[in-house]
Amino acid sequence: MNMMKNVLIACLCSFAVLYQLPAVMEYRDISWKDNGKTISVMRWEWIRIILPGNGTAGHSWEFTASSSILQYCPYSKSIPPNGGKFRFIFHAPSLGSCELLFKPSPSWDKSDQMEPFRVTILVDKDWPPGICRAA
């Protein structure tokens, strides 16, 4: 009976870990303080861009990418208002560089005008041999 209880607990814990995997995933956070910078990341890393916004007023961000080395996760855009922040998640499966340009959409009121946000992601390192980071 005790062994069955342990097996049941192990199964429940395994299910809980697998179910919560996206919630515990580690990200490289990039925010407004990084505007205009080049950020170096490792291949297979997950990147989360956090930008200010007012989703309840219909504000959002649109972005363009200079290359296809980053994969955008379209389900990652935050649900407004989410604390006045928008989150965009990218995955870096390839080596190279990519400039991301975020523009406010629609054009915000003059009193609340946000500047575009620009960051260059440099994927210049691979993980050491023996460590698998593939998604």
Can you put this structure into words, describing what you see?
There is one protein chain. This protein has a single domain, classed as Immunoglobulin-like (Sandwich). The N and C termini lie far apart (38 Å). The chain has 2 helices and 8 strands, in the order ααββββββββ. With 135 residues, the chain is of the alpha/beta class. The relative contact order is 0.23. The chain has helices spanning 2-19, 21-24, and strands at residues 28-30, 38-42, 46-52, 60-65, 71-73, 85-91, 96-105, 117-125. Helix content is 16%, strand content 37%.
Distance between the termini: 38 Å
Count of separate DSSP helical elements? 2
Helical content class: 10-25%
Q: Would you count the extended β strands for me?
A: 8
Order of helices and strands: HHEEEEEEEE
Which CATH first-tier class would you pick?
A: Mainly Beta
- Taken from the alpha-carbon principal axes, the silhouette is elongated
Quote the beta fraction: 35-45%
Q: How do the strands of the widest beta sheet line up side by side? A: 1-3-6-5
The biggest beta sheet reads: 4 strands, mixed
Poorly predicted tracts of residues:
5-23
CATH third-level topology: Immunoglobulin-like
